[in-house]
Structures are given as structure tokens and as C-alpha cells.
Design goal:
mainly alpha, two-stranded antiparallel sheet, Complex III assembly factor LYRM7, Complex1_LYR_LYRM7
């Protein structure tokens, strides 16, 4: 896959992730502007090494948004209601101080 295709795919993926992560949050959905500004500011980059570095940064940001961000909704003066996405919920494995060896 060429670099231009990778950049376009990353651009689309970041916007899809932004829409999924910040669903129903109009203020946070304005991250669209920041994504567009960052891509526009690096539009004239020609160095393949620098482009790969920027792609890596963008991919890391997308992964971080997808795996680490949950929404919080103010329900009261000092209360937040957390709204985790389904893909963030994982099976809770109990912690054990003294693990036993499998036989």
C-alpha cells in the first residue's frame, strides 16, 4: 500500500474512531477540526521517513482513543456517569497473590 493510501486510510480511521468514542458529545466531536488541521499542516511533507513517523503517531493516537477513552456525563454537581463502550468492557479476572502452577 502506498503512503498516500496509508495517510488517507489513517485520516478516515481517526474520524470514525472520533465519532464512535465521542458519540452524542457535540463539544468533543469538534476534535474533527484538530484532526483536519494536523493533516492539513503536514500536507506538503515529502520525506518518506517523516511521513511514516507521522503515520505512526496518528495510529498511536487512534489506538489510544479507541482503547482508553470513556465518556463521562455530568449528572449532578459532583457526580459523573461513566458510559463505557462495549469494546472497552473486558472480563474481570480476580487477582490472586499466590498463583498456583498448572499441572
Amino acid at each position: 500500500m502506498g503512503q498516500a493510501a496509508k495517510v488517507l486510510q489513517l485520516f478516515k480511521t481517526l474520524h470514525r474512531t472520533r465519532q464512535r468514542v465521542f458519540k452524542n458529545d457535540t463539544r468533543a466531536l469538534e476534535a474533527r477540526i484538530k484532526i483536519n488541521e494536523e493533516f492539513k499542516s503536514n500536507k506538503s511533507e515529502t520525506s518518506p521517513k517523516k511521513i511514516e513517523e507521522l503515520i505512526k503517531i496518528g495510529s498511536d493516537v487512534e489506538w489510544l482513543l479507541r482503547t482508553s477513552v470513556i465518556q463521562g456525563i455530568h449528572t449532578d454537581h459532583n457526580t459523573l456517569k461513566l458510559v463505557p463502550r462495549k469494546e472497552l468492557l473486558i472480563e474481570n479476572v480476580p487477582y490472586c497473590d499466590a498463583p498456583t502452577q498448572k499441572q
